[in-house]
Amino acid sequence: MAGGATITNGVNNKYTADGSGGLSASQEMSSTDGSVIIYAYAPYQNSWSAYNTANGFSVRTDQSSDADYLASDLLYASITTATGSANLSFTHKLSRVCLTITNSTGADLSGVTVKVLGTKTSTTLRLSDGALGEASGETSDITLASNISIAAGGKQTVYGIVVPRQTVAAHTELFSIHYGEKTVYWKLGDAAVTFISNNSYKASIDIEPNTISGTISVATTPGL
Q1: Coil, strand, or helix at residue 67?
Q2: What does the alpha-carbon distance between residue 45 and residue 75 come to, in Å, rounded to a whole number?
Q3: How far apart are CA 41 and CA 54, in angstroms?
Q4: Strand (E) positions, the chain?
Q5: What's the gap between Cα 118 and its chain centre?
Q6: For 31-37, what is the mean pLDDT?
Q7: With the CA atoms of 88, 96, 196 and 136 taken in that order, what torsion angle do they form, in degrees rounded to the nearest 10?
């Protein structure tokens, strides 16, 4: 945007990161105003053509692959610049959950499927100010990992993206871990958890043949 108007060739262009902090392609744009505001987001949405409206976004319900995980990780940046290069610093707009599973006593943890249970999967993002909407839509389970194995004495962390601005009540089953013919559930304790934008929620679980235990904590720098 420049001077309150969209600049020529400036609407919802698609770029690809080059892996070194830059872009692999460019789009020539022009404006009669010397200062421009750049709004950027990822992953690319073909239908997002308006910068000052609530654009719909949903996380994938199966995030067991890297591609589907990244397709769920909504990023946003904005900068005002007059000349030269514009350095965009992106923020994670959604929340991340991380579950570390430890196989301390040698349970048969092969073919394991891990899910986060019963959260709303849709929201909106307004590009003009980065405002995130309320969590919306039907609740759904999200698969974080599928058909993984954890050796005796080993551990593995699985990750997923969830929509913030929703609360999971105390004593609610938040994760399920299915292996063999068993399904065990990780349940919140006495405190509810409210998912907040750009926060990461770390939980741990120790699976023995018939018992589980775990805790949850919050970290404010999620990473990917």
Answers
A1: helix
A2: 12
A3: 14
A4: 36-42, 54-58, 75-81, 91-92, 95-102, 109-126, 131-132, 136-150, 155-162, 166-168, 173-179, 182-187, 193-195, 200-207, 212-219
A5: 16
A6: 79
A7: 100
Helix (H, G, I), strand (E, B) or coil at 70: helix
Q: Which two tokens stand for residue 72?
A: 């769920």
Q: Which pLDDT band holds residue 223 (cuts at 50, 70, 90)?
A: very low
Q: At CB < 8 A and 24+ separation, what contacts does 184-189 make? A: 184/212, 185/117, 186/99, 186/212, 186/214, 188/216, 189/215, 189/216
* Degrees to nearest 5, angle at CA 60 with 55 and 66: 120
- What count of residues does the chain have? 224
Taking alpha carbons only, the member of 171, 159, 70, 150 closest to residue 115 is: 159
pTM: 0.90
